[in-house]
Specification:
six-stranded mixed β-sheet; Nucleotidyltransferase, domain 5; alpha/beta; five-stranded mixed β-sheet; 45% helix; globular
Length: 309
């Protein structure tokens, strides 16, 4: 069986096409992402405008065509933080269905957290070992802890790199005052989260901030998922890269080969979220995963198929 999953995030839209056998992902056929910036202005205005809708429709139509090319039997598209926040989300989803033939399911924060965790974990570990998955998105950040079988904590915070860039980091390079206010906001949100399990678990980070940092740390000239997967970032290394980038202009950051043009203006906010999480949880290091929600949604579909047999 061939399945396509589309993860419509606040900043990126990701497509994963796999071949599944025996209720498991047997082979990845296609994996790509585009910077669509669905969440542009949503934090302030709570609406997805027509320009953004047109841009997203083009990408979804293209992804549908790619899925047909690979003979996918099912396309599953899910939306996350920006769609949860938008007051016109229903109109937007109806419009996308009419224009592209792709039906969008809007995930709750809890569902996004759970299936990001499942996707990031994959076949990692077994038994009673405790894991924590950190997913820094464009609109929200999820912190999920548990074992390979059972989740014990799911937290979704309205703290994301697009949201914080628009709210706090308004100049390039950002001022020390802007960075300080951004850090204070993140800390106030993290202060309500029990990070005990995070301190005593294997911590895995997913999504663009983490994979970009791994690519910079590894000095990759071309993005290589096999090298990024499992890369370990120490807190000192994250701080060193942040200090190198925080004084650069947007144009200078765009010239860093490992940073895609659509991520250049939000990468600092993502790094600040990561730094504050590692500080609050007293973590010396974090492992990076190239997997995440798009994998989890396929695992959910396979689980449902197995239950229905």
């Amino acid at each position: 069986m061939r399945i396509s999953s589309i993860d419509i995030g606040t900043n990126t839209i990701l497509l994963l096409i796999v071949e599944a056998k025996g209720g498991k992902i047997a082979r990845v056929l296609h994996d790509e992402q585009v910077i669509a910036r669905l969440g542009k202005g949503v934090d302030e205005h709570r609406i997805i405008n027509s320009e953004t809708a047109n841009r997203v429709a083009e990408f979804l139509y293209s992804y549908r065509g790619t899925s047909h090319k690979y003979r996918s039997e099912k396309i599953i598209a899910v939306g996350t933080s920006a769609l949860r926040d938008a007051s016109n989300k229903r109109e937007f989803c109806d419009d996308m269905l009419q224009r592209t033939g792709v039906e969008i399911e809007i995930l709750s924060g809890d569902d996004e957290a759970e299936w990001t965790y499942r996707g990031a974990l994959g076949v990692a570990g077994s038994g009673a070992q405790i894991f924590t998955v950190l997913d820094i998105g464009g609109g929200s950040t999820e912190i999920i802890s548990g074992t390979s079988k059972t989740l014990s904590q799911k937290v979704s915070l309205d703290v994301g790199c697009v949201r914080l860039t628009e709210r706090f980091l308004r100049t390039t390079p950002p001022t020390l005052q802007e960075i300080s206010e951004c850090r204070s906001f993140i800390r106030s949100n993290l202060s309500n989260v029990d990070l005990t399990q995070s301190r005593n678990s294997r911590v895995i980070g997913v999504a663009g901030t983490l994979t970009t940092l791994a690519a910079i740390h590894l000095r990759l000239t071309h993005y290589d998922p096999s090298r990024v997967e499992g890369c370990v970032l120490e807190r000192e290394a994250v701080g060193r890269i942040f200090d190198q980038l925080r004084m650069k202009t947007h144009e200078e950051i765009m010239r860093v080969p490992q940073i895609s043009p659509g991520r250049a203006d939000i990468v600092l906010a993502g790094m600040i979220i990561l730094q504050e999480f590692m500080e609050a949880a007293n973590l010396g290091e974090i492992a990076v995963s190239d997997r995440g929600l798009r994998y989890g949604i396929i695992l959910r579909e396979l689980q449902r198929n197995t239950s229905n047999q």
